[in-house]
Structure formats: structure tokens, C-alpha cells
């Protein structure tokens, strides 16, 4: 159950850190935006290590679905842009894919 909390918090800190770099490099804000960006991205990495999973790659793949949902939420709440229908279709496909990775049967190769 804590995995969902870690996934959500990791997504929040990753998006915030990347957004701070976006503000500096794309919006012409002060280079002081680098400090919170680095702190936020460090917290993201630490939080993602709290996920209970046998393999890091599988945890990161499942996290990708959560990240995409959080990114569209960020778009709506922070950037105040209404997500498009195609955004929601993409979210659904990604969450479905993450669910298969996380909960699907463990099929082996040939």
C-alpha cells in the first residue's frame, strides 16, 4: 500500500524538479531555479528507492504510468491548461500498460 504513496510523491517531486528547470531554461527565469530543481529531483530519486519491488526496472516501468497521470494533473492544476481528449486516451493506455507490468502474469520467453 505504501508503494502508491511513494509513487505519487516521487512523481510530484520529479515533475516539480523538471518544471523548475523548464522555468529557468524555457521561461527565462533566474538560475536560482536550479537549487529547488536539484533538491526536488534528489528527493524523487530517494523516494523511488522506497518502492517494494524485486527489480528496479519493473518498479520504474510501473511508476511510468503514475508519472503520466500526475503530469496531466500538473498540466491541469499548476499550468491551468485543460487536458485534451487525446491526453486522457494516452493516460488510459499508459496506465493499462503499467498495470500489465505490475500485476500481469509473469510470462517467460522462449
From TrEMBL:
- TM helices/strands, residue ranges: 30-48, 60-77, 89-108
Asked if the record carries the keyword Membrane, the reply is: yes
* Compartments it resides in: Cell membrane
Q: How does it sit in the membrane?
A: Multi-pass membrane protein
Per the UniProt record, one Pfam family is: UPF0060
Keywords tagged on the record: Cell membrane, Membrane, Transmembrane, Transmembrane helix
Please give the PANTHER family that the UniProt record associates with this protein: UPF0060 MEMBRANE PROTEIN YNFA
Which family does the UniProt entry place this protein in?
Belongs to the UPF0060 family.
Family matches, as NCBIfam families: PRK02237.1
Q: State the name under which the record lists this protein.
A: YnfA family protein
